[in-house]
Amino acid sequence: MPFNPIDDAQDFARIINSGKTVLIDFHADWSGLCRSTSQQFSELSDTFVRIGVDFYRVNVDELEDVVMEADVRVVPTYMVFKDGKKVGHATGVDGLSLHKLMGSYMTRCEVVA
């Protein structure tokens, strides 16, 4: 599982502005829905980390300022950031939506590259 927790708002800002592509899982420990997608997030991170995508997690109950800044309204929410900008997002427990998010992002990257 190559993903790391985000510890605070400064950490969040540093990570999303790092110049790397990052996928962030906004989750809650109490949510059964979040627990059910955790394995899919882990498997996806194993695949995409090889091509330079970094994976992080934010516990919504611990970092309310980050949640407000990112405008997270439901858990789980997944967001892709590049150069400080949100370039994609998906919500809910459907593992397919997470795969679609990364697939559409990678298609855009291939077209641009």
Q: Secondary-structure blueprint of this entry?
A:
Layout: E1 3-5, H1 9-16, E2 21-27, H2 32-48, E3 53-59, H3 64-70, E4 77-82, E5 85-91, H4 95-112
Parallel strand pairs: 1-3, 2-3
Antiparallel strand pairs: 2-4, 4-5
Written account of the structure:
This protein has helices spanning 9-16, 32-48, 64-70, 95-112; strands at residues 3-5, 21-27, 53-59, 77-82, 85-91. By secondary structure, it is α/β, with parallel strands linked by helices. Strand 4 and strand 5 form a beta hairpin.
Overall pLDDT level: 84
Unreliable stretches (pLDDT < 50, length at least 5) are 109-113
- Radius of gyration using CA atoms only: 13 Å
Which strand order does the major sheet show? 1-3-2-4-5
Query: What general form does the structure show?
Result: globular
Percentage of residues assigned to helices: 40-55%
Q: Outline the biggest β-sheet.
A: 5 strands, mixed
Helix and strand composition category: alpha/beta
Proportion in β-strands: 25-35%
Question: How many H/I helices?
Answer: 4
Record field, number of beta strands: 5
Topology order in helix (H) and strand (E) letters = EHEHEHEEH
N/C terminus separation = 28 Å
Task: Give the key terms.
113 residues; alpha/beta; five-stranded mixed beta sheet; globular
Short description:
With about 110 residues, the chain is of the alpha/beta class.
